């Protein structure tokens, strides 16, 4: 893997043997370009310079906002008690029963729900305030009723968290701070 400087922005260059496609993206706020081995990344990046600079500035501002967020210091037991209470409460509200609850470190998401009904929660949730934790737990339990993120799912989320869009944005900021 190589790194190049593009207008003062460190860019990770990933070269692939197969495929002809080129992808420029920001992963966790870091610029990355994926391209075939024989291509020079600079002409491609120069064509997309305005987009790159605009997106880089947006991520810089998001990182500054993320730094202002407060983290919570709670013990493992306090976290488990909170999650158990939330699951009990929201499983009753939604009339669902998860087949299991697990905890693991995840790099890019706060929780997941598999097709068999097992909920997995990111262990980093332990450092978040109660409201975002409650939102993630409710979100994953809601997937036991509606498997996608369509209008029915959003209506279910909105019923409990009318400000769910703001909570979603806040979770993305916490992702920049923690994940």
Structure characterization notes:
This protein starts with a strand and ends with a helix. It folds into two domains: 2-67, no CATH class; 76-178, Metalloproteases ("zincins"), catalytic domain (Zincin-like, 2-Layer Sandwich), CATH 3.30.2010. The radius of gyration is 20 Å and the shape is elongated. The model has no long low-confidence stretch (mean pLDDT 94). Helix 2 packs across helix 6 and helix 3 packs across helix 4. The strands form two sheets. Strands 1-2-4-3 form a four-stranded mixed sheet, covered by helices on one side. It is built from six helices and seven strands; from the N terminus they run E-E-E-E-H-H-H-E-E-E-H-H-H. It has 179 residues and is α/β, with parallel strands linked by helices.
Task: Give a quick summary of the entry.
This protein has 179 residues and is an alpha/beta fold.
Give the arrangement of secondary structure elements.
Layout: E1 2-6, E2 9-16, E3 23-27, E4 30-36, H1 41-47, H2 49-67, H3 76-94, E5 100-104, E6 111-113, E7 118-122, H4 130-142, H5 151-160, H6 164-178
Parallel strand pairs: 2-4, 5-7
Antiparallel strand pairs: 1-2, 3-4, 6-7
């Amino acid at each position: 893997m190589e790194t190049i400087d593009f207008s003062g922005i460190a860019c990770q260059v990933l070269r692939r043997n197969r495929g002809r496609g080129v992808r420029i993206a920001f992963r966790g706020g870091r610029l990355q370009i994926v391209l075939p081995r024989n291509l020079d990344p600079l002409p491609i990046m120069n064509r997309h310079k305005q987009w790159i600079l605009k997106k880089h500035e947006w991520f810089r501002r998001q990182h500054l906002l993320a730094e202002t967020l407060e983290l919570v210091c709670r013990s493992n037991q306090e976290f488990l008690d909170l999650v158990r209470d939330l699951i009990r409460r929201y499983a009753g509200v939604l009339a669902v029963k998860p087949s299991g609850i697990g905890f693991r470190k995840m790099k890019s998401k706060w929780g997941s729900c598999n097709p068999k009904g097992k909920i997995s929660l990111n262990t980093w949730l332990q450092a978040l305030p109660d409201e975002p934790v409650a939102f993630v737990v409710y979100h994953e339990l809601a997937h036991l009723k509606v498997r996608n993120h369509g209008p029915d799912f959003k209506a279910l989320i909105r019923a409990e968290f009318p400000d769910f869009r703001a909570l979603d944005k806040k979770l993305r900021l916490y992702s920049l701070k923690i994940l």
